[in-house]
Structures are given as C-alpha cells and as structure tokens.
Amino acid sequence: MSSPPGTSPPPEGQFPPPRPRRMKHFFTLLSHEIRMLLVSPSTYIAATAFLGFMGFIFVAILENYSKAAQDTAPAQVFFQLYFLPVFFMVPLLTMKCLAEERRLGTIETLLTTPVTTTEVVLGKFGAAYLLYMILWGSTGGFFYILKKFSSDPRLFDAGPLIGGYAFIAVSGLFFIAIGVFTSSFSRSQAVAGILSFVLLAALILGGSFLAKASFLDRESLQPLKDAVDYAQVTTHYEDFTRGVIDSRQLLFYLSGTVLALIFSILSVEAKMLHG
After folding, report:
1. According to the model, what pLDDT value does residue 16 have?
2. What is the pLDDT of residue 154?
3. By C-alpha distance, which of 116, 93, 55 is closest to 183?
4. How far is CA 117 from the centre of its chain?
5. Is 0.90 surpassed by the pTM of this model?
6. Going by C-beta distance under 8 Å and a sequence separation of 6 or more, which residues neighbour residue 117?
7. Which residues of the chain have pLDDT under 50?
C-alpha cells in the first residue's frame, strides 16, 4: 500500500491508523429531518397553537397600552411570557425525533448505513431548532405591523426587541437539546413529551422557586445559592432585554446544549447495544 506524498510509510506488519470519519452526511440528514417535520401533524399543531397564543398576547398588550401609558416597551412585555409556549412547543417539535425512530425500528436500519450516531442526533436537533426559530421569527410580523401603523414611536423600541430575540435564539439551543435528549430515552412520543415538559418546567420555574427559598440564605449553602442564581433563566431574559449579554450566561446555554446532545448520543448508542 503506497503512502500519500510527504508521509512516511507505516512500519512493516502494521496498518496505517484509520482516518477520522467526517460528518459528510449531516446536511443530507438535516434536509431529510426538515422535510419530515414539515409533513408531521404535530408540527402544524405546535405552529397553530404558538402563533394563536402569541397573537392573543400581543393584542392584549396593545389593548393595555391603548387604555393607559405604560413604562415598559411592548416588546419587553411580549417576551416575558416566553416560557409558556416553550413548555408546549419544544415537546411537540422534539418528542418524535428519536422516540418514533426507535418505536418503528428505523434507527437501527439508519445506523447500518455509512452515518454516525452523532450525525443522526445533530441532524434531528438542527431541524427542530431551525423550525423553532422560524416560528419565533414569524412573530416579528406583529412588530412590523405595529411599527407600520402606530403613530407613537415609543411603542416600537428596537433594544428590547433585539435582546428578546437574541435570548430566544441562545436559550432555544438548550431547550431543543433537552427535548432531543428526552426523546432518546423512550419509544413512546407521549413519554418523551412529558419528560421534556417536566425538565423545562424544572429548569425555568423550579430555578425561580429555589432562588426565593429562604433556606438557601444559610452561609453553609452559599455555593448552592450561587449555582441557583447562575442558572436563573428569568434573570438571563431580563439581562438580554436590557442589552446586557453576560458571557457566563452564554456559556451556561452553550455548555448545557453540548452536554444534552452528548447524553443523547450516548443514550442512542446504549439503546443500540442493549436492544
């Protein structure tokens, strides 16, 4: 076997080390997963419920502003309830991605082709995240209509609007990764959706509850209180809408995303090994 130019041949009796497998199938899998999401009824249920709910909130905000002047911009109020659609939209977008593959037995068939588990998981994650951002991005039409037809420029404040969408984009990475992780646990979509809902609620609402707990004020529990404060999603949202982007907050979401995806990959491989 001849060696590539510029390299020395391997010692006699030894084979050259295998070349790393690159993620050349990632975009093929990503486009396939996007098509599958576009033909899935749960996608349209999530989109209809999300846009209807957010449209109702936006109308209610404008009604309040028409009755009396408010201190905060409509965009800041609009994003305050981000967690309500997240609780339902993320499970609906992710509960099928790996659970359904395992239920139908197609995950085993897929992994016998020249693709890696990493490519499969990242392809499903990327498709769900892309659709998540498209749904949130479509709410920008509300603010376009507001800017076009409102005579009061104070109603359209670009700062909280940009900060709100930046928070949605960054936190969405972690939220979708949690959904993919829970989908890797079970063959049942319902179980995966419930697990995703519980973990998201624990992260967002549970963290806020713990931050107000008086027992954490003890000096011996100060490290735990610091950790709880660090993971406060609501505080992160408030900072983003004020234009304050802390690198520690970015690290929290990016590291959480990476860990959730690694655990998803390991979960799929473990299920393959143990049937």
Report:
1. 47
2. 66
3. 93
4. 19
5. no
6. 111, 265, 268, 269, 272
7. 1-2, 15-16, 18-20
